[in-house]
Write a structure and sequence with these properties.
Layout (H helix, E strand, L loop, with lengths): L9 H22 L13 H10 L3 H21 L3 H4 L3 H27 L8 H25 L5
Helix pairs in contact: 1-3, 1-6, 5-6
Length: about 150
Amino acid sequence: MDASSGARRWPAYAVAVLLLAYAVGKAAFALDSRLGFPGGPVVPAAEHDRYARDVMGVATAQWSAVASGVAGACLALATVTAPGRRVPRPLMLAALAGMSLAIGAGAAIMVVDGFVGLGVGWQWYHGVLGLVVIGLLVATIRSYVVATRRVAG
């Protein structure tokens, strides 16, 4: 990929690292059947019990989050690798859009709660992290679009 073309690999690598860190954090909590995330707001016992009763088992939810984090990291890396480039462009863009909606929603919650305080207790630095994640997602998609566009000729 030509760096001068505007396509960059580093945002995809950064997204992959963040998603793998997310997966590791979720795995740590899954092992203890705890809701939340290391470094995040503490989930009250009542919320933990309500979630386990009304939604699904806490460990199951956390292991599902581990799987989604690993899958997201693989998708991000696919945007900059030869095997990923063999995936049809519309399919890859649809997958990236879905990933961005899911991750972007979580990041937006961190931003709003971190800066405005309308949620579970994310702090300002979580809000900054949310903005960074959103920016990296946009940069990853932009880089993929630039690297895979067809040259008219």
